[in-house]
Amino acid sequence: MSNSIKTYAIKPNNSINVPLPVPAYLQSCDGVLCSFSTDSLDKSDGVALVNNTPIHANGSFVVLTNNSPYESKVNILYSLTGDESGTHPTVDATGGEIITPEFLFIGTKNNPQPAVKLTPDDATYCTYEFSSSDSSVLDFNQDGTFNIHKIGTVTITCKVTNFFSGTSFEITSDWVLDKVLDINYVEIAWIREGDFTLLRWNLNYIIPKNLIGISRSTSRQGFIFDEDDFIHVPTNTYIQTFDAILTVSFRGVIIEKVMNINVLPNSVAGKAVNMNYYVRNNFCFGMRGCTMGRMELLPIGATPRSVEYIPHNNPAYNEPVINLNPYTGTFDLLEDTAMSKVFGIGIKVTNFDDTVFYHYATANVYSYSCTFKAPPAEMPFGVNYMMERVDAYPSDARHSLYFYARYSNKIWTPDKPGAMEPNISSAGNIYAYESGVLTFTVTSEYEGLPNTKPAQTFTIKFTGK
Questions:
Q1: Lower CB density within 10 Å: C or N end of the chain?
Q2: Which residues on neighbouring strands pair with residue 216, listed in sequence order?
Q3: Which of 177, 200, 234 is the last residue of a domain?
Q4: Are 223 and 232 in contact (CB under 8 A)?
């Protein structure tokens, strides 16, 4: 028989989510009306808890809601008889690991409770209690959610308790908290009257849009956003400039960016007055036939007399650019011998009325490098495994069509003579058809460029499913 009781305090007009490792009884203990719901209840408004009257709850979690202006306390009583506990076969956890969440930003509140990977994998009926080494940097709420207050480093401790045996242990994880939420965007200098123009923006650290709240507005009435971040400028506005305002919220953090945009009237045509230039993300030493990026003359549809590409001839730098074509803008990059890791190209635009303007674009250049995370030493055959690339530059080599894994020195020792050799694809996928031991050496290339990191050798033992 195992019995346990825990008391939770719910603030006025608030809710908390409490895991239920086993069925339990809920009891309001202070006379304040509270309600609850679980994943096994098909009720949106929950069930009311009457003072001192226990109500049975069954499910993986319970949501406790206090709609009163006073704090409410609720007891959760876990009580199973010996016969009942026998229907819940258990495996005690002996160790584990706290999984660091993907998104940790200063100022966020009620971040989801961290996930815990237990050892052994089939451990069941465990409860978690989290704490922080510095509550001024990060603190936990009683339901396991947490708040990040400022930049710092904290040690997260999780007390894991095996529900039936009552044994417990602690695991820790060090978190560095230094990321601040921000919006990056490509400045749009001009929009012509009547155009629908896409505002190119993204949240840093690539937060999925389904996790954030977005609102859009402008400083002028009639300038309309749609849900795909296009903005429409009406005709005959007689307005020369306006602000496009983007507001984003994420777990209590609200940020706002204002983009100043000039309006070109329809009467301006043919003559180029400015440009947007979108620089390519990644360049590596040794590339040939490159272009810096994509040019967009403004206003859209402008037809200047000529566009000329000119190198940066700064004698203080040995920039890694050779063979620049002045008409197409294509160029080659030297090997990794240049003094500068930054290079630039000038763009000269000349209109038919002899007016001229210049634009300069710069970018970084790197040596291609990549290592692989060691695969598991043992895994079942008949399961796809994807080699994970780490420490890779350029970053798009992780998933790019221009990335290829190269394998050599493959040694296959099957448990059954004549068993088919495992398949290893250039994308990094490994699949074994039978049990045995595979040893192989792997390196990679990116757009035909060799990897500057040394090749790695791994051994995998494939076992039965």
A1: C
A2: 246
A3: 177
A4: yes
Q: Are 57 and 26 spatial neighbours (Cβ–Cβ below 8 Å)?
A: yes
d(CA 379, CA 392) in angstroms, rounded, equals 25
- Please state the domain count of the chain: 5
Output the pTM of the full model. Answer: 0.49
Give the residue from 413, 393, 412 showing the smallest Cα distance to 403: 393
Look up residue 418 and give its two tokens: 């004549």
Q: Is the dihedral of CA 199, 204, 210, 213 positive or negative?
A: negative
pLDDT in tens, 111-122: 988 989 999 988
Residue 47 burial (10 A CB sphere; 0-12, 13-18, 19+): middle
Of the residues 264, 288, 321, the one at which a domain ends: 264
Name which of 374, 382, 378, 388 is nearest 460 in CA terms: 378
**How far apart are alpha carbons 417 and 325 in whole angstroms?**
59
What pLDDT digit, counting tens, does each position of 122-140 carry?
887 788 899 999 999 999 9
The single-letter DSSP state of residue 115 is P
Which tokens sit at 297? 């003359």
